[in-house]
Amino acid sequence: MKKRAAKDYIVFPLDVASVKEAAQYVSLLSDWVGMFKVGLELFVQTGPEIVGMIKKSGNARIFLDLKLHDIPETVYRAMCRVAEMGVAFATVHCGESPRMLDAAVKGGGGNVGVLAVTVLTSITSEDIQASGFKEKFTTDMSNLVIKRAQMAKTAGCAGVVCSGREVKMIKEVFGTDFVAVTPGIRPEWGSGVKDDQRRIVTPSEAVSRGADFLVIGRPIRDAEDPVTAAQYIAEEIDAALTDS
Ligand code: C5P
Q: Residue 17's closest CA among 40, 41, 39, 36?
């Protein structure tokens, strides 16, 4: 199989509030980023226009990260609209209902890779406990991640969003073709500032454990020089790919 370039692993979330700012990051980072992620902040502000803008600016793929979570009919109808937009991936929460995942996949109609969010990388065991889950999930959160990934696989999702700590297990259980996207990436050379991410790994850990895509936002966006930061990350990924 053809080795993927480091850039193909890097997903940069356009967590900004305007088309203008997003366009600046797209043009700045296009040499180092294979996919741009449009999330809630930008989509709420700009609507689908942003997808057209990114498409016009080059070859990068687009990940529409709206993390849908609603009754099946609403999720189905929303995903039908997403499927018309020509994006590579879109997200739905695993939540509590396999029917919601079925609806998302049906709405996608094979025109968009539906990714299911297992357990957010900002969540800790204490959070899971506080929201009323059984002890087997609070003592070992990977039980919950696997349970939800199984729901996603059964529904026909393209893959899951999980932490780099769980990706090896996901690949072992569900196979290498089941896509694993890992946010919560923090390079060792980063600022060390404690933010909302909790289940974090370095870029090289994520890649060597089998992640297909790494969502890397603040370590690039908030770096003194975002291009150099992206370049360092690409080099780290390259080295990890060579070693693995
Ligand atoms: O690297 P950083 O923490 O800045 O990345 C933040 C981005 O990762 C946000 O766009 C957020 O929506 C996304 N994210 C995600 N799934 C998670 C955690 C964060 O898609 N489990």
A: 41
